[in-house]
Protein backbone atom coordinates (compact mmCIF):
# COMPACT_ATOMS: atom_id res chain seq x y z
CA UNK A 1 0.00 0.00 0.00
CA UNK A 2 1.33 3.40 -0.88
CA UNK A 3 -0.34 5.39 1.89
CA UNK A 4 -2.78 4.60 4.69
CA UNK A 5 -6.45 5.12 3.94
CA UNK A 6 -8.14 8.22 5.30
CA UNK A 7 -11.64 7.73 6.68
CA UNK A 8 -14.03 10.66 6.47
CA UNK A 9 -17.76 11.37 6.36
CA UNK A 10 -19.25 10.71 2.93
CA UNK A 11 -20.28 13.65 0.74
CA UNK A 12 -22.97 13.84 -1.95
CA UNK A 13 -20.37 13.84 -4.72
CA UNK A 14 -19.04 10.50 -3.41
CA UNK A 15 -22.20 8.62 -4.48
CA UNK A 16 -20.96 7.36 -7.89
CA UNK A 17 -17.65 6.22 -6.38
CA UNK A 18 -19.44 4.57 -3.45
CA UNK A 19 -21.65 2.72 -5.94
CA UNK A 20 -18.55 1.41 -7.69
CA UNK A 21 -17.01 0.20 -4.40
CA UNK A 22 -20.34 -1.36 -3.43
CA UNK A 23 -20.74 -3.30 -6.69
CA UNK A 24 -17.09 -4.40 -6.91
CA UNK A 25 -17.11 -5.60 -3.29
CA UNK A 26 -20.34 -7.52 -3.88
CA UNK A 27 -18.68 -9.19 -6.87
CA UNK A 28 -15.59 -10.03 -4.79
CA UNK A 29 -17.52 -11.20 -1.73
CA UNK A 30 -20.74 -12.78 -2.92
CA UNK A 31 -19.63 -14.64 -6.07
CA UNK A 32 -20.97 -18.16 -5.53
CA UNK A 33 -23.40 -17.00 -2.82
CA UNK A 34 -25.50 -14.75 -5.03
CA UNK A 35 -26.50 -15.47 -8.66
CA UNK A 36 -23.97 -14.25 -11.24
CA UNK A 37 -26.88 -12.69 -13.14
CA UNK A 38 -27.40 -10.29 -10.20
CA UNK A 39 -23.71 -9.54 -9.67
CA UNK A 40 -23.02 -8.99 -13.37
CA UNK A 41 -26.23 -7.09 -14.18
CA UNK A 42 -25.22 -3.92 -16.05
CA UNK A 43 -28.01 -2.04 -14.22
CA UNK A 44 -26.55 -2.85 -10.77
CA UNK A 45 -24.11 0.07 -10.79
CA UNK A 46 -26.88 2.50 -11.73
CA UNK A 47 -29.15 1.11 -9.01
CA UNK A 48 -26.42 1.39 -6.36
CA UNK A 49 -25.65 4.95 -7.51
CA UNK A 50 -29.32 5.87 -7.03
CA UNK A 51 -29.25 4.28 -3.57
CA UNK A 52 -26.12 6.13 -2.43
CA UNK A 53 -27.37 9.42 -3.90
CA UNK A 54 -30.55 9.03 -1.84
CA UNK A 55 -28.66 7.91 1.29
CA UNK A 56 -26.53 11.05 1.12
CA UNK A 57 -29.29 13.52 0.30
CA UNK A 58 -32.72 12.21 1.34
CA UNK A 59 -34.13 13.33 4.70
CA UNK A 60 -35.22 9.77 5.56
CA UNK A 61 -31.53 8.83 6.00
CA UNK A 62 -30.73 11.80 8.27
CA UNK A 63 -30.00 9.57 11.30
CA UNK A 64 -27.56 7.39 9.38
CA UNK A 65 -23.79 7.68 9.70
CA UNK A 66 -22.02 7.22 6.38
CA UNK A 67 -18.25 7.14 5.92
CA UNK A 68 -15.77 6.41 3.17
CA UNK A 69 -12.15 5.31 3.16
CA UNK A 70 -9.95 7.03 0.60
CA UNK A 71 -6.40 6.28 -0.48
CA UNK A 72 -4.48 8.31 -3.04
CA UNK A 73 -7.67 10.11 -4.12
CA UNK A 74 -9.63 6.88 -4.70
CA UNK A 75 -12.34 5.32 -2.53
CA UNK A 76 -11.39 1.88 -1.22
CA UNK A 77 -14.16 1.30 1.33
CA UNK A 78 -17.62 2.41 2.48
CA UNK A 79 -19.70 2.03 5.63
CA UNK A 80 -23.14 3.02 6.88
CA UNK A 81 -25.04 2.54 10.12
CA UNK A 82 -28.43 3.75 11.21
CA UNK A 83 -31.32 3.22 13.55
CA UNK A 84 -32.36 -0.41 14.06
CA UNK A 85 -34.95 -1.78 11.64
CA UNK A 86 -36.34 -4.31 14.14
CA UNK A 87 -39.49 -3.31 16.01
CA UNK A 88 -38.18 -4.20 19.48
CA UNK A 89 -34.38 -4.10 19.25
CA UNK A 90 -32.01 -4.58 22.16
CA UNK A 91 -29.39 -2.47 20.35
CA UNK A 92 -29.22 1.23 19.47
CA UNK A 93 -27.48 1.09 16.05
CA UNK A 94 -27.41 -1.26 13.13
CA UNK A 95 -24.52 -1.65 10.73
CA UNK A 96 -26.02 -1.76 7.25
CA UNK A 97 -22.92 -1.55 5.07
CA UNK A 98 -19.21 -2.20 5.50
CA UNK A 99 -17.29 -2.99 2.34
CA UNK A 100 -13.58 -2.73 1.68
CA UNK A 101 -11.83 -3.83 -1.50
CA UNK A 102 -10.19 -7.25 -1.05
CA UNK A 103 -6.82 -5.64 -1.81
CA UNK A 104 -7.31 -3.49 1.30
CA UNK A 105 -8.20 -6.32 3.70
CA UNK A 106 -5.81 -6.38 6.64
CA UNK A 107 -4.75 -2.73 6.27
CA UNK A 108 -6.82 -1.33 9.14
CA UNK A 109 -9.33 0.23 6.75
CA UNK A 110 -12.22 -1.99 7.89
CA UNK A 111 -11.81 -1.24 11.62
CA UNK A 112 -11.44 2.49 10.88
CA UNK A 113 -14.68 2.48 8.88
CA UNK A 114 -16.47 0.45 11.56
CA UNK A 115 -15.43 2.95 14.25
CA UNK A 116 -16.47 5.86 12.04
CA UNK A 117 -20.10 4.69 11.88
CA UNK A 118 -20.49 2.81 15.20
CA UNK A 119 -19.46 4.08 18.59
CA UNK A 120 -17.54 1.19 20.18
CA UNK A 121 -19.64 1.57 23.36
CA UNK A 122 -23.11 1.42 21.79
CA UNK A 123 -24.98 -1.86 21.42
CA UNK A 124 -25.17 -2.71 17.72
CA UNK A 125 -26.40 -5.39 15.34
CA UNK A 126 -25.60 -6.42 11.79
CA UNK A 127 -26.50 -9.10 9.26
CA UNK A 128 -23.64 -10.95 7.57
CA UNK A 129 -23.67 -13.52 4.77
CA UNK A 130 -23.33 -17.12 5.88
CA UNK A 131 -20.99 -18.61 4.91
CA UNK A 132 -18.61 -15.65 4.95
CA UNK A 133 -15.93 -16.76 7.41
CA UNK A 134 -13.62 -13.79 6.85
CA UNK A 135 -16.33 -11.20 7.58
CA UNK A 136 -17.69 -13.17 10.53
CA UNK A 137 -14.18 -13.42 12.03
CA UNK A 138 -13.72 -9.66 11.52
CA UNK A 139 -16.94 -8.90 13.39
CA UNK A 140 -16.11 -11.36 16.19
CA UNK A 141 -12.77 -9.60 16.61
CA UNK A 142 -14.74 -6.37 17.09
CA UNK A 143 -17.06 -7.74 19.77
CA UNK A 144 -19.96 -9.12 17.73
CA UNK A 145 -21.39 -12.60 18.26
CA UNK A 146 -24.14 -14.54 16.44
CA UNK A 147 -27.45 -14.37 18.31
CA UNK A 148 -29.09 -17.33 16.54
CA UNK A 149 -31.27 -15.28 14.15
CA UNK A 150 -31.07 -15.99 10.44
CA UNK A 151 -32.75 -14.82 7.26
CA UNK A 152 -32.55 -15.03 3.48
CA UNK A 153 -31.99 -11.63 1.86
CA UNK A 154 -31.75 -11.36 -1.95
CA UNK A 155 -31.20 -15.13 -2.07
CA UNK A 156 -28.29 -14.98 0.38
CA UNK A 157 -28.43 -16.70 3.78
CA UNK A 158 -27.48 -14.27 6.55
CA UNK A 159 -26.96 -14.51 10.28
CA UNK A 160 -27.41 -11.68 12.75
CA UNK A 161 -24.54 -10.71 15.00
CA UNK A 162 -24.87 -8.48 18.07
CA UNK A 163 -22.42 -6.46 20.09
CA UNK A 164 -23.39 -5.70 23.64
CA UNK A 165 -20.61 -3.66 25.21
CA UNK A 166 -19.75 -4.65 28.74
CA UNK A 167 -21.08 -2.39 31.45
CA UNK A 168 -18.85 -0.55 33.87
CA UNK A 169 -16.51 -2.64 35.96
CA UNK A 170 -17.85 -3.23 39.49
CA UNK A 171 -16.18 -1.16 42.15
CA UNK A 172 -13.69 -3.23 44.19
CA UNK A 173 -15.33 -4.49 47.37
CA UNK A 174 -18.88 -4.24 45.99
CA UNK A 175 -21.08 -7.22 45.22
TrEMBL record:
Keywords: Acyltransferase, Transferase. PROSITE patterns: GNAT. Pfam families: Acetyltransf_1. Coiled coil: none annotated. Residues 5-166 form the N-acetyltransferase domain. InterPro entries: Acyl_CoA_acyltransferase, Bact_Acetyltransf, GNAT_dom. It comes from the Bacteria. The keyword Acyltransferase applies. This is GNAT family N-acetyltransferase.
Amino acid sequence: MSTPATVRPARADDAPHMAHVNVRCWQQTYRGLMPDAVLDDPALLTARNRFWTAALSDERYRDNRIAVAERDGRLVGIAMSGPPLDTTPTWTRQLYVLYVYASDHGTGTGPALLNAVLDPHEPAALWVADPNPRAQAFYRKHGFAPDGAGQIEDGVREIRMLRRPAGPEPHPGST
